[in-house]
Amino acid sequence: MAAAFSWIRPEPHGIHIVPADAWIDPARPVPRALVTHGHADHARGGHGQTIATPETLAIMDLRYNTREGTQPVAYGETIRLAGGVEATFIPAGHVLGSAQILLEHAGERVVITGDYKRRHDPTCVAFEVTPCDVFITEATFGLPLFRHPPITGELAKIHQRLAAEPDRCVLVGAYALGKAQRVIAELRDMGYHDPIWLHGAMERMCRLYQGWGVDLGDLRLVADAKKDELRGQVVVCPPGALGDRWSRRLPDPVTAMASGWMRVRQRARQRGVELPLVISDHADWDELTATVQEVNPAETWITHGREEALLRWHQLNQRKARALALVGYEDEDD
């Protein structure tokens, strides 16, 4: 009799679906890749065939020019791979197009989450709890220290600073895929209707989101503005541009950073952030543990993050778990 789950094998460069000779989020080019979402530590060009949601394929086309050999799979759609393996793409709530992948073979169900969050996000479809035998979860914020506050309270800090210092602008560093669009959309939902100004590197991804029906309101380029136009305004840029020469053209900017890592004060100080905004597109500690309890798998496999603490939580709660040793997964500027 074959060992349980022997058909799916964690290897250093990705998760190998052995009967189908396919890989989940491989760190190097492979003949057949199933991709959970468009962030660079999960999505790469050069695969023979790339299977992902239509939104993720659009993001990969924008970033890596991957037009050939793609197969779009809608949420809830099941496809049959070689070797009798079935794959279903399920919303992960991380960024536009992000998916969990449910694999079914030989009566066993495995869910690979990629990255996910449980909070409401107007820019992407919400996470769906999917029962399974093996649940492969990220652990980016897998420490009890990380409990993300409500986003409305964090974004209210921007309003408060603009009201207190109207001659300055607030310059928000935000990851170019997912975080920037979420910050903009949430500000709109809170009633902020002024133009939001973009660093040039943010424009194409924001336009892509708009093309998929995400309402980001009036977006304008800083390059097209006079300096005085930016007083009392919100400007969004990549995190790397916060201390760049580019920012010197702005009117005495209040430097802000939208990231789950802003919970750690030393990180904010190291980056010279005046206004840390604890905003994450990953599940926090409570959401990670609650999700495991809701999914209730026979086993949990833990990857790319603070694996030790989450592994210990499983042990204390008499749950079977193991840590995976995958390479190529990096901390995003989350």
TrEMBL record:
InterPro entries: MBL (IPR050698), RibonucZ/Hydroxyglut_hydro (IPR036866), Xnuc_lig_assoc (IPR026360). It is an enzyme of class 3 (hydrolase). The keyword Hydrolase applies. SUPFAM superfamilies: Metallo-hydrolase/oxidoreductase. Its EC number is 3.1.-.-. This is Ligase-associated DNA damage response exonuclease. The keyword Ligase applies. It comes from Alteraurantiacibacter buctensis. GO terms for molecular function: exonuclease activity; ligase activity; RNA endonuclease activity. Keywords: Exonuclease, Hydrolase, Ligase, Nuclease.
